[in-house]
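Re-run with default settings, no changes from the original entry. Doing this only to confirm the output is reproducible before filing.
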Amino acid sequence: MGQFFAYKNPNPATRAQYPYLLDIQSNLLSGLRTTVVIPLTPSKLAAPMSLTRLNPTVDMDGKSFAVMTQEITGVDRNQLGAQAHDLSSYRSEIIAALDFVLSGI
């Protein structure tokens, strides 16, 4: 498990809308059974409802995804799929989106 890694969404009911889950929890808490994730949705599906600061865009394998920060949730680590992409290069944008949710700035 790693902070700012995207994992394949193993849930067939939500996989089309949210093909990836972005783990944002600190590695210092890796001993916990749960982790905090943000769903990633294809940008073309999020475009009408996304805000640039709240929903930064990340690219994986030439495809664009919106970080759906307002849909943050906790999941059991055992429910995460395979580790797919390291998104640590987007760390600043992801933290800014979380700060926007928490403080409005």
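The mean pLDDT is 92. The chain has one domain: 5-103.
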